[in-house]
Amino acid sequence: MNLFAASLDRLARLGRFLWSAWAGLAGLALIGALWQAGHEAYGDFILTAPLDTLAAAARLLHEGRAQDLLALTTARALAGFGLCALIGTAAGVAAGYSPATLRLSRPVLTLLLGVPPIAWIVLAMIWFGPSDMTVAVTILISATPLVFVGAVEGVVTRDRGLDDMAQVFGAGPVRRFLFVSARQISAQLFPALILALGSAFKVAIMAELLANAGGVGGALERARAMLDIAEALAWVSLAVAALIAVEYMLIRPVRAELERWREAAAPWGVKR
Amino acid sequence: MNLLELNRIGHAFFGRTVLQGISLGVARQEIVALIGPSGSGKSTLAHIAAGLVDPREGRIIRRYLRHAMVFQDPRLMPWATAADNIGFPLRLARVPRGMRRRLVADAALRAGLLPEDLGKYPSELSGGMRQRAAIARALATDPDFIYFDEPFTALDVALKRRMQDLVIEAAASARFAALFITHDLLEAIRISHRILVLDAGGRGIAGERLIPGNPGSRDDQAVFALRQDYLAADPLFAHIHDIDERLRP
Ligand SMILES: Nc1ncnc2c1ncn2[C@@H]1O[C@H](COP(=O)(O)OP(=O)(O)O)[C@@H](O)[C@H]1O
Ligand SMILES: [Mg+2]
């Protein structure tokens, strides 16, 4: 009975999610229309028609090579993202609980955020050559501060009253963190993680292109050299599709599961 | 033998003395009301007694087995349903899931929550329902001592009365002792066996009054008359309403 209600609830949420996909599709259609208009104004050589681009992307996928390149880039981006999520969360939580560490880390953060990612790519290329390491390190350095700030915000803005409550009922520091603080931190952390994931893909492709490390970045570089605008746009579309797929398969479901109460808190009619 | 004893407790925040030389005791199954104007250090004292704050000086002896606390704000976890909030202390006490569900339902019933409210999130409950959930959470582990820190201040008069009756009934049936902090003299008279008045500057307990009869068996007329009496003629209560905490050093 209880299980039935729970699965029904889950089904309803899935339905709402699919329904919201229509809104996303409408947005995509709008972009497609603008793209088509640009194509008609400037011609094939500047902006390939959206359908032709899709055809090119389908061809790339069909030929088989694209899967490998996409998988390579995605793996690199995910590896960098995983590392930065781990390190950023751990460091951010630690700093959030220790005001002295936080004060020390602020200038470091400003410095890290001030250096353009391109500079890190150049440095990483010199240190590691055209390898996975270059890509991973660049992602790590450019995306970790985001995650760090999210985790710190989560710790600092948590409701300390709940900590007291848990302590009164006998929770030690560890269980206070696991049962009470972690949930509040995750609410701040998830938006930062989504941003970091997007940034990981972008930086991965940029690093691949500049470091000549293959993957989607390498393919883009070849398309540029051959002035093949259709193929370049096709690669961009494929990379974006990969990012969206990862985000909706990896992060959104976890977040939706953790944030069910927010949906309950939304007044009727605001539920999307 | 007192369940809770505070001996010459003193505390300061950032060098500013808030409490000084506070001694009090609460006996088994006794409800002691602690009243004092806002800012006199009542919450600080409750937090010290419950072990949330380490006092700068003094000694605390706790002879009870298990305590609970009802705060001024409900302090429910917004991401958990009412049932999960009420069951939180049981989860911390590692009570098995099946037994937990039974105890939660029982505590909710005693706090006047309806079974259909148990699946709701705090944001879906009214203010009174949230405070009921907080009371149910305090009752869930069947504690022998409960701290109440002005739990009903935010509620309207009618609701406040119902909640007070609920605490009186629960105390009579579950037989817990309590330190009930309030700045409402009427509430203190209705609920407690004994009233302690905290010095307005937190320098000791200014005095105490035993309330005749048992909570729950006093009729409204007597309660109102006693309150009038205290406010008009008893010097101990002369200043409990007219202190402005902004004037404190
Ligand atoms: N965490 C804190 N840090 C600094 N000052 C505090 C803190 N908590 C309470 N105080 C101060 O201690 C005094 C007593 O506060 P409190 O115990 O909350 O009083 P009450 O509960 O009687 O209203 C107030 O002047 C308040 O400003
Ligand atoms: Mg208070």
Number of helices of chain B: 7
CATH topology of chain B: Rossmann fold
**SSE string of chain A, helices as H and strands as E:** HHHHHHHHHHH
Biggest interface and which pair forms it? Answer: A-B, 20 and 26 residues
Going across the major beta sheet of chain B, what is the strand order?
5-6-7-3-8-9
Task: Give the fraction of residues assigned to helices of chain B.
Answer: 25-40%
Distance between the termini of chain B: 37 Å
State the name of the first-level CATH class of chain B: Alpha Beta
Backbone shape of chain B: globular
What fraction of residues of chain B sit in β-strands? Answer: 15-25%
Find the CATH superfamily of the largest domain in chain A. MetI-like
Unreliable stretches of chain A: none
| C-alpha-based Rg of chain A, rounded | 22 Å
Distance between the termini of chain A: 27 Å
Q: Please write the string of helix (H) and strand (E) elements of chain B.
A: EEEHEEHHHEHEHEEH
Overall pLDDT score of chain B = 91
Mean pLDDT over all positions of chain A: 88
Question: Secondary structure elements and their pairing?
Answer:
The complex is a heterodimer of chains A (272) and B (249).
Chain A: H1 2-42, H2 50-63, H3 65-97, H4 99-114, H5 117-128, H6 132-156, H7 160-168, H8 173-211, H9 215-225, H10 229-258, H11 260-265
Helix pairs in contact in A: 2-10, 3-4, 3-6, 3-8, 3-9, 4-6, 5-6, 5-8, 6-8, 7-8, 8-9, 8-10, 9-10
Chain B: E1 2-13, E2 16-27, E3 31-35, H1 42-50, E4 57-62, E5 67-70, H2 82-92, H3 97-110, H4 127-140, E6 145-149, H5 157-174, E7 177-182, H6 185-191, E8 194-198, E9 205-210, H7 220-233
Parallel strand pairs in B: 3-7, 3-8, 5-6, 6-7
Antiparallel strand pairs in B: 1-2, 1-4, 8-9
Helix pairs in contact in B: 2-3, 2-4, 3-4, 4-5, 6-7
The complex binds adenosine-5'-diphosphate and magnesium ion.
Residues 13, 18, 36, 38-44 of chain B line the site of adenosine-5'-diphosphate.
